[in-house]
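Sample entry follows:

:::
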Amino acid sequence: MSYNNPSQWLNTICAANGDRTAICFKDQKVSYFELGQHTNRIANILKELGLKKGEKIGLLLPNCPEFVYFLYGAVKVGVISACMATTFRGESLEYLINSADSKVMVVSTELEDAFLKIRDQLPGVEKIVWYPEFPKGREQHQVNEFSFNQLFSHAKASLDITVQVSDADPMLFLHSSGTTGRPKWIIQTFAFLLEQGRFFADFSGIVPSDRVYDPLPMFHGNSQMFMISGSLYANATMVIGTRFSASKLWEEVRYHKATVLVLHFTPIEFMKKQPVQAGETDHLIRVCFPADREFMERFRIPMGISGYGSIDAGIVCYEKFRLPFTESYLPNDDKRLYSVGGYPNRNVEIAVVDKEGRALPPGKVGEIVVRGLKPHVISEGYYNRSEKTLDAFRNFWFHTNDMGFIDREGRLHYSHRSAEGINIKGEWVDVPGLENVIRAHPKALDCVVVRIKDEMVGSEVKAWIELREGEVLKEEEIVAWCEGKIAHYMIPRYVEFIPELPRLAGTEKVARFALEAQGVGNSWDREKAGYKLVRS
């Protein structure tokens, strides 16, 4: 099968699988034959709206099959899909839309109020498609606004290709989470998305009979690389969850007879903290991503996939873990396994370098850098951010800003974001390791460790801790808990409890830099309290 022409690739898959189910969503089932027709309809709609090759359509959609139709319908005519976080509001949403240069926006009616509040600040948006229908009261008098259902019902199910599109053409804009500044639009090609799906499907052993379930927001790269692209590559069924719910996940998994589970480390932590439920092991899941020992053992999932990557480079390393676990390879006793990147895929080269860009020996922590061994298998750069692109791709490597090391067997291990790194008197703090220790306290629900600048030692450690509901804890009890479990210099000097850790819109990642910006604040100070560490 040719992979060079996206339209031909998808049409071949849809024709070969015919009436087999491509998508499950709630009670709806979409066959591969219907998927081919629906993507043709979208391609015809985009041509009718006046979009040309290389122009952008903004997708502000909830989880739904139409998200897939737009992604793969747009690529058939060379239109780029800019996938936007549905949780953004106000100036943040305005920035996303304007910075993508989206001429047409597809907007869920659920987001009517949020979108209309900023409509006058979106000069580049020429047309709006409301999904699934016009908001109440707007259908009669708005120029250049359309109902998705009306457009879709009248669109042709066949497509006359009038534009040449290759796998090297941009297909997708994904935005960064904004942990280190304003979100950047990351340019990805069809070749990138296909290769990500191929590796996930091959490494997970996905076959046509599998049903790949993902309840996380579809504007995330994970859903597009794994559930969507992985399922299409393997001719399997993608099962689109409405949204993640820790209390209802297994109910949905059983209902859809899912066999592959795609999550993220934060939802996995939520699942592990759920009370034991009857039937929580009564499912058909045989592999999950990412791997987590406690999660796999509790819910009896035979295999887990750990990986390292980003939306800039994709997942570039994988590692498999199977039940029962052996103690022969559990690095740093990390039962969550998130730090294990694994072995590089065949499309990339990976190194760990020092500040001058020199390769470091096995076991030495430095910055993780990646480069493709063939064209278009990692990001093409950042849209309209040439300086950021040149900086990130300097010296013929993509610089991830992540710190890690390569072990003697060639496996990559993630340590921390370089911007999150805490260096005390020349020694790096194992940020994930310290956070793991604190989270293990029976009264702690979650925590984040941040850097506090110090004139004497360079940096000090502060722990922000969210307690379990109804629990009370003293700061010195946290310090005592850490003693003997981690190096003495890593034990937090500052501790502050918080009712709920703030999270970045649409990602569930903790807003680490917002907490770091608060500095010492009202936190408890171990040194001022006269607490003396016992150095072992």
